[in-house]
Amino acid sequence: MDTEGKIRSLDKFPYYNNYDIVEGIDHTLFISGSAGIYVVDQEDLLSGKELEYKLLNSDAGLNRALTPNAWNYVDENMNFYFSTDTGVICMDLKNYEVSVRSYRMQMKSVKIDDVSHFVRRGEVIYLERGAEKLEIFPEIINYSVNIPYVSVYLEGYDSEPQVVSQSEMSSVIYTNLPVGTYKFHIAVLDHKGQNPVVESVYTIEKKAEIYDHWWFVVYIVAVFTLAVAYLTWMIFHTQVQRVINLQKKEIELVKKQLEMGNETVLTIAKTVDAKDVRTSQHSERVAEYSVLIAKELGFDEKSCEDLKKAALLHDIGKIGIPDRILNKPGKLTDEEYGIMKSHVTKGAEILKSFTIVDHVEEGALYHHERYDGKGYVHGLKGEEIPINARIIGIADTFDAMTANRVYRKQLDMAYVIQELKNGRGTQFDPGLVDVMLGLIDNGKIDICSLYKEHAHADHSREKEEE
């Protein structure tokens, strides 16, 4: 009878021989019939909509036929007594599902790369680092007549559990598991296949080798880096030796292979100065002036050392200038001057792979740029010109004016100072002009003392050669 008092047959069920209706807890109805006992929600039944129900029959443990037209009884403890063809059965309406279930999960064996291994309850299953295939054989011992839903899940690898009925359950295969620790869950679920009723968990651990640890990776990277650095040093050293061997006729003072570092840079600088008969120790003096300026500007020790080496090599491109142009006593033609100016790009090309000094090619490429943009070869101006190149540029010009040349004596210092002032903001960086004038004024740049020191050093080297 529905809410309006109308009688309606229970024709929503696939079997029409329904005998009795008993109300359990939470508005759950138990409807006995020739097929078994249907379990349905009272509101769903009265609504007349399509029903979802559970049938307690032989598959659920009810292996006896119910008797029609029999008197059934529910006591105060919600025990349901109903008649069958062989007698009376009592069913607890509060625990009607669990009472017919009894399961035990186990995993007797696994196969690791197709080799069987027995598993004892509670022990960890270990996989070697090189194991590729793991096959698990879960087993459900079912003491009831139910065919439950079963869930298998490898925690740490599977994204979600695999749910199948017990009749469909087979072995589970995993291939190429990463190194780590996993938990394998076997669970019997409720009749809806959602919540675990009983569960067993097994631990699986794939062992890590030494190369799986982070510190081993760091070690390998460090060894590889050192090997690459050593190989790079060897290759560069070989290239420098090859260049030196080609320049033996021009480098009279070099009698053995040159070392890397400062000695190599200094020797190359001497080679450039020796090629140009109009200069003598020009690169060394330019390097000294440059470092003095840099220290006044607050450069750190490494930056000063890099600047020194860049200054020593700033004219290295003159190696590629023909002697007839480089040492021509008279005025150069426009074509010859164009070739002479190319020494900056030649120098930068030579030094672009010279990795032991930061930005070393900038000194060679930009030291003839002017602050007003009228220099060569790129026409950079102002702070577009790298600071090292601006320093080398003013030091180079200062040495050109104060050095003795084969065609003239050094210029008067008063004239040189005036030329520096005239070049403020045009040829030179104004700030660097102030620094240079300050160094001259406080005696840190003393041309007379400097030339005496260089002359004494040359004399000492000549004595050693004799």
What features would you describe in this structure?
It is built from 13 helices and 18 strands. The chain has 466 residues and is of the alpha+beta class. The protein folds into 3 domains: 18-100; 103-211, Sandwich (Immunoglobulin-like), CATH 2.60.40.10; 249-465, Hypothetical protein af1432 (Orthogonal Bundle), CATH 1.10.3210. The strands form 5 sheets. The chain has a 5-stranded mixed sheet, with no helix packed on it. Strand 1 and strand 2 form a beta hairpin. 23% of the residues are buried.
Task: State the CATH class of the largest domain.
Answer: Mainly Alpha
CATH homologous group name of the largest domain: Hypothetical protein af1432
Counting DSSP E segments of at least 2 residues, the number of strands comes to 18
How would a crystallographer describe the biggest sheet?
A: 5 strands, mixed
Overall morphology:
rod-shaped
Overall mean confidence score, pLDDT: 81
Could you say how many structural domains there are in total?
3
Q: In which order are the strands of the major sheet placed?
A: 11-18-17-14-15
Low-confidence stretches: 253-259, 459-466
Structural class: alpha+beta
